[in-house]
């Protein structure tokens, strides 16, 4: 569910921070840039874990700021494929179900990932799963505010290119799965 993602990026430190501790300023800038943000094919970034490598800074002639290449690890939320999660139904529509994990409200389950056979009830804006039980058809209704369990199905890759500040490259170098 939680991973440590090893990332590499260039941190820009504005001249007004030149007198401060470099490590603390880099940590602050990385948390400001990534914490509580979704990074494509990495996950929801939560907090900086540690700095692995801080390369030598150089001053840009364009903006007068320090530019420092850093390698770091970030704690990220990224469920494993098939991992069962517990969430609350935020809304239902003909295209699927939106679910909240309490700390993250943007989980979306599309129609093709719902149990089959399922149908949408337009009058009550809810989904109904029709399943066979002892030769009869039983119905399980999924309404707003219901607590449901669902499995993660998104395939994650180990390498991703992500365009950040001034088209620099952010690369996922490796990841370390496990519960933290």
How would you characterize this protein structure?
The protein is mainly beta and 180 residues long. The chain folds into two domains: 2-78 and 156-177, RNA polymerase Rpb7-like, N-terminal domain (Dna Ligase, domain 1, 2-Layer Sandwich); 84-151, OB fold (Dihydrolipoamide Acetyltransferase, E2P), CATH 2.40.50.140. The chain has one helix at 22-34; strands spanning 2-13, 37-39, 43-54, 58-59, 66-77, 84-93, 96-100, 107-110, 118-121, 126-133, 136-142, 147-151, 161-163, 169-177. Strands 1, 2, 3, 4, 5, 13 and 14 form a seven-stranded antiparallel β-sheet that branches. A four-stranded antiparallel β-sheet has the order 8-7-6-12, with no helix packed on it. The longest helix has 13 residues, at 22-34. The chain is elongated and about 75 Å long.
Question: Main traits of this protein?
Answer:
four-stranded antiparallel sheet, mainly beta, disordered C terminus, Dna Ligase, domain 1, elongated, seven-stranded antiparallel sheet, 7% helix, OB fold (Dihydrolipoamide Acetyltransferase, E2P), 2 domains
Question: Can I get a quick summary?
Answer:
By secondary structure, this protein is mainly beta.
Low-confidence stretches: 155-180
The helix count comes to 1
Indicate the percent of residues in helices: under 10%
Global geometry: elongated
What integer value in Å does the Rg equal? 22 Å
What's the CATH superfamily of the largest domain, by name? RNA polymerase Rpb7-like, N-terminal domain
């Amino acid at each position: 569910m939680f991973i440590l993602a090893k990332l590499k990026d260039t941190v820009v430190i504005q001249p007004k921070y030149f007198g401060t501790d470099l490590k603390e300023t880099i940590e602050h800038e990385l948390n400001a840039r990534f914490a509580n943000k979704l990074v494509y094919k990495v996950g929801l970034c939560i907090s900086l874990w540690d700095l692995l490598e801080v390369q030598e800074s150089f001053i840009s002639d364009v903006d007068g700021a320090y530019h420092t290449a850093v390698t770091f690890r970030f704690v990220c939320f990224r469920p494993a494929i098939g991992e069962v999660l517990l969430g609350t139904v935020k809304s239902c529509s003909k295209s699927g179900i939106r679910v909240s994990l309490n700390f993250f409200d943007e989980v979306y389950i599309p129609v093709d990932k719902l149990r089959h056979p399922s149908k949408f009830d337009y009058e009550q804006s809810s989904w109904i799963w029709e399943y066979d039980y002892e030769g009869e058809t039983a119905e399980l209704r999924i309404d707003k505010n219901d607590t449901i369990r669902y499995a993660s199905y998104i395939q994650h890759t180990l390498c991703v290119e992500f365009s950040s500040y001034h088209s620099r490259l952010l690369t996922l170098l490796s990841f370390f799965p496990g519960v933290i």
